[in-house]
Amino acid sequence: VLGEHIFNKDGKHGYEIRNQLVEQFKCLEQQSESRIQLLQDLQDFFRRKAEIQLEYSRSLEKLAERFSNKIRSSREHHQFKKDQHLLSSVNCWYLVLNQTRRESRDHATLNDIYTNNVIVRLAQISEDVIRLFKKSKDIGIQMHEELVKVTNELYTVMKTYHMYHTESISAESKLKDAEKQEEKQFSKSGDLNVNLLRHEDRPQRRSSVRKMEKMKEKRQAKYSENKLKCTKARNDYLLNLAATNAVVAKYYIHDVSDMIDCCDLGYHASLARTFRTYLSAEYNLETSRHEGLDIMENAVDNLDSRSDKHKIMDMHNQVFCPPMCFEYLPHMGDEVSAQQPVQTELLMRYHQLQSRLATLKIENEEVRKTLDATMQMLQDMLTVEDFDVSDAFQHSRSTESIKSVASETYMSKLNVAKRRANQQETEVFYFTVSTCFLLDRYHNQ
């Protein structure tokens, strides 16, 4: 406790300073406790987040393994592996599974970083906060003791000054009393004619005057001595007062700030490194995810129905390979001959077929145009860019607005039903025309 006497003497100002010094430690202790609580909450948060990451990693691994086992047991997988005829659609499916495994590994890595890096850093920072507060408190106690010493010295000097000043006032009062008595004595002497005094009263009168002069001289000397002591004590008090004020000012302006700096030593820098570790892990998770998705996107860009059709036909070439042409088999040595009546008939038939082929060609071209136009309509329906869902991830919007946007999107029930109905209607028309187009080839043989 700082110089109780000096603060009680100085009144309210000193009382406030004493309370401030007591509250300073309370404030720093509360700050330390709040930091420890913050660090504990962060540890608990990242510990649970690490558990969630590990659970998610294991779930992804099980999901990928489940379908990978199904693929490995399928006949198509062995054929793709053997012939290296991987369909573009199947390649996308395999890449989805590879991306799932990649995300599983990445989330397991995130769990390891949280558990063995981030949480460890936070625990170390918490230990540093406790240790540095204790050391800063020790330094603060020493500074307070020095402040007590200085203020106690000020109190002692002040009491000395007050004592000498009181003695000086007392000596001055006695001196003034002596001077008044002397003036009174001289006043009486002036009223009486010395010649009128009796001869035997004159020595007594002179003795009284000498005593009065000696008393005045003695009191004058005492006053001068006390006045000098008071002046010196006042000077010492003023010098000590200035020094004490300088020490107190230095404590509040510089020392308190330095003591807080001791408490803060490395706290913000260490916390920043911890959060940057977290950011690095999350950013690298996203980088790894984007790398895998880029591979996936390239495979999606390479989806090709024509290429897949050729690969399927190559894989099953014995099934799709055209059979050998039928050969002419003469019956019992019969030979082909062109007799005149038959030749004329054949020539007439040839011209009829040429005319019919020209008509069919025109008709087929019209049907082909219809098929191409219908196919283009189907392609437009099937290639519409309805895959952008970025609006659903606008975090600045409220939950209600996100729901309303989702309900009005391309995938809303009303839009889906309408689009599916149009698509199926167009497909029916396309297959009807295609059936006629294909079967007419056989009917017109």
From TrEMBL:
Residues 199-224 are annotated as: Disordered. SUPFAM superfamilies: BAR/IMD domain-like (SSF103657). Keywords: Coiled coil. Residues 15-308 form the F-BAR domain. It holds the Pfam family FCH. Residues 350-377 form a coiled coil. SMART domains: FCH (SM00055). InterPro entries: AH/BAR_dom_sf, F_BAR_dom, FCH_dom, SLIT-ROBO_RhoGAP. PANTHER family: SLIT-ROBO RHO GTPASE ACTIVATING PROTEIN. This is SLIT-ROBO Rho GTPase activating protein 3. It comes from Hucho hucho (huchen). The lineage of its organism: Eukaryota, Metazoa, Chordata, Craniata, Vertebrata.
